[in-house]
Automatic annotation (TrEMBL):
PANTHER family: ARAC-FAMILY TRANSCRIPTIONAL REGULATOR, HTH-TYPE TRANSCRIPTIONAL ACTIVATOR RHAS. This is Transcriptional regulator, AraC family. PROSITE patterns: HTH_ARAC_FAMILY_1 (PS00041), HTH_ARAC_FAMILY_2 (PS01124). InterPro entries: AraC-bd (IPR003313), Homeodomain-like_sf (IPR009057), HTH-like (IPR037923), HTH_AraC (IPR018060), HTH_AraC-typ_CS (IPR018062), RmlC-like_jellyroll (IPR014710). It comes from the Bacteria. Keywords: DNA-binding, Transcription, Transcription regulation. Residues 193-291 form the HTH araC/xylS-type domain. SUPFAM superfamilies: Homeodomain-like (SSF46689), Regulatory protein AraC (SSF51215). Gene3D superfamilies: Homeodomain-like, Jelly Rolls. GO terms for molecular function: DNA-binding transcription factor activity; sequence-specific DNA binding.
Length: 294
């Protein structure tokens, strides 16, 4: 059994926030409390029941008690961990957590999730926040951390109110991301699942979303909106995430040259590949190789 990680008890509120910055990976562990994780900067691979998912800035997910998971940090990464025990919340706000059904793998996702593909953030119940949501969440986490450090009058009440606001933001985005999929007619779900399968199989080739839309007899704008409703990501975000995910696999497990790896993920300009990789991962491909071998 994996070891339990202690609760960061800065006070007696049953709520804590940690802002962690570093490059040290976290081995598999469990908690006896809930943990909401938010990636501020950098990147890491989240391992969960033998499944690996690349986490990038703006990604967030909720880990329930007794759930084993680990992180492989690729470069200097900034992560917020908001930990709490369920009894600190009244029923109205705890229901925001309770109503998220745990799937067979243990993540806090809705009762069903779309078919799994390699870059599908729905695979581990990851919620991806847009830039405005990220800034708002960071301001709340910063306020909670300040209250925790100063411990001035009513700070425990203030921390609980910050947590309630965080859960509302998380639940709202989760509902939008996951429920948009289930609100789609079966035909629309099938269209996007077919598109994801095509992208997965043809990642080394140029992907023309205008052509994919025409093949499905849809306008480009409607197709792009439908794609984001189902996957939680815009088409370009999704395909770039998939390219970098597959590039990481090649870097770790093959002896291909950098130009060959770039070509295998559909990028034929090595300089652009290096820039895109660093933008996602926070480090160059060569530095990533060195880190993965340490």
């Amino acid at each position: 059994m994996d070891p339990y990680k202690r609760f960061y008890q800065a006070d007696d509120s049953g709520i804590s926030v940690e802002h962690w910055t570093g490059s040290m990976s976290q081995d598999a562990h469990m908690h006896k409390y809930y943990e909401l994780v938010f990636i501020e900067k950098g990147s890491c691979t989240h391992t969960f029941c033998k499944e690996d998912t690349l986490l990038l800035p703006g990604d967030s997910f909720l880990v329930r008690p007794e759930t084993s998971h680990s992180f492989a940090i690729h470069e200097q990464t900034s992560i917020y961990n908001c930990q709490f025990y369920p009894e600190v919340l009244d029923e109205q706000f705890f229901s925001l957590v309770k109503e998220l059904k745990a799937d067979a793998r243990g993540t806090q996702v809705l009762e069903k999730t779309p078919t799994s593909f390699q870059a599908d953030i729905n695979n581990q119940g990851i919620v991806h926040l847009d830039p405005n949501e990220r800034m708002f969440l960071l301001s709340i986490l910063g306020g909670m951390q300040k209250a925790q450090e100063k411990q001035e009058s009513y700070y425990e009440l203030l921390k609980r109110k910050y947590l309630e606001l965080i859960l509302i933001i998380y639940r709202k985005r989760s509902d939008q991301q996951f429920k948009n999929y289930y609100s789609q007619p079966k035909q629309n779900q099938t269209i996007i699942m077919r598109t994801l399968a095509y992208i997965e199989e043809n990642i080394a080739e140029p992907i023309d979303f205008n052509e994919l839309a025409r093949d499905e007899n849809l306008s480009t704008n409607h197709f792009r909106k439908l794609f984001k409703d189902v996957t939680g990501l815009a088409p370009v975000e999704y395909i770039n995430r998939l390219r970098i995910t597959k590039a990481c696999e090649h870097l770790q497990h093959s002896n291909l040259s950098m130009s060959e790896i770039a070509a295998n993920v559909g990028i034929y300009d090595q300089n652009y590949f290096s820039r895109l990789f660093k933008n996602f991962m926070g480090c160059s491909p060569r530095h990533y190789i060195r880190r993965s071998k340490e």
